[in-house]
Amino acid sequence: MASLDLETKAKEAFIDDHFELAVDLYSQAISLNPSNAELFADRAQANIKLRNFTEAVADAKKAIKLDPAMAKAYLREAMACIKLEEYQTAKTALENGASLAPGDSRFINLIKECDERIAEEAGELPKQLPDEVTTSVATPNDVPPAINLSNQITTISSTKPKYRHEFYQKPEEVVVTIFAKGMPADNVAVDFGEQILSVTIDVPGEEVYHFQTRLFGKINPEKCRYIVLSTKIEIRLAKVDAVHWTSLEYSRDVAAVQIKNVPSGNQRPTYPSSKPKRVDWDKLEAQVKNEEKEEKLDGDAALNKFFRDIYKDADEDTRRAMSKSFVESHGTVLSTNWKEVGSKKVEGSPPDGMELKQWEY
């Protein structure tokens, strides 16, 4: 199928709130036409809807690289960065986009929002200093081992590391954050081994920073990735096995004893924060999901939710069947049986009393 056809179907899926299907279709189109900036910008928007903000930033940056004059790519980069609380990066993207679309009020409004957030963070800084000093001298019993990793940096010197770092985990990945502010991406090198993470930050005129450790468990280097943001470096390690890491660094004493399987289900991590006020996002998300579950939908809304739930929980063959049937039938057929639709073209099947027409795009 041509890239243009896939793009059209991806847009239709996005309009129908089938965001995962839209991302899949955009990815197929990109594989056929990897130099199309529009595809990356639109996939960024779909990733934002799915709350895949890191992926959205990467897509928006790729779109900007391919077409520096695309205003909406800067807007989508900024929207994703705001969700990641990267307000300075978002502001820079908005200012660049505003110069390309001076009449678009969205840029002006979001720049104001970023200024307010940056001012709030600057105002909180003096309040955080005492907490940071206390944390640096706290005993291991006072600090949760999952996020206090100051003992796990492999260095020759015993002095305090130049950059603070933390980690949290999901069943399928571990996310490591190194708080290196304003670091150019060209000065950062991250290497992944089977059970090794190595980070080098080389700033001219400064001592080279090395962080290298043998990890608690094995990772898949091909699926690992990282992104350099304005206040931090975010590294995502893809686990080989869905087990719980009791620490970031390997330990012979606990590796065989304390590993345990992560419970099944969509369990989300509680994100560490240095802000004085903290929101229990797990509890909030559970409440929202419960409200969505109890909400009674009618008509197209109920049908769309039904299809989204099928696609979200489906295996690979079922997703392929849904994608192929939806695209080839021009949105009139949605099959979950890959054996039935995989070997033949799916013909359109309009409702009774309606006629299927081929549209020219």
Low-confidence stretches: 125-158, 255-262
| Coarse morphology | globular
H/E topology pattern = HHHHHHHEEEEEEEHHHH
Radius of gyration: 23 Å
Write down how many β-strands occur, each being a DSSP E stretch of 2 or more residues: 7
Major beta sheet, specifics?
4 strands, antiparallel
Alpha-beta content class: alpha+beta
Question: Roughly what percent helix?
Answer: 40-55%
Mean pLDDT comes to 78
Total number of helical segments? 11
Strand content: 5-15%
N-to-C terminal Cα separation, in Å? 14 Å
Main sheet: which strands, in order across? 1-2-7-6
Family: Belongs to the SGT1 family.
Region (Disordered): 342-361
Protein name: Protein SGT1 homolog
Domain SGS: 270-361
What do these coordinates show?
By secondary structure, this protein is α+β, with helices and mostly antiparallel strands. Helix content is 44%, strand content 11%. It has helices at residues 3-15, 19-32, 37-49, 53-66, 71-83, 87-100, 105-137, 281-294, 299-313, 316-328, 338-341, and strands at residues 165-169, 173-178, 188-192, 196-201, 209-214, 225-228, 233-238. The strands form two sheets. The chain has a four-stranded antiparallel beta sheet with strand order 1-2-7-6, with no helix packed on it. Strand 6 (225-228) and strand 7 form a beta hairpin.
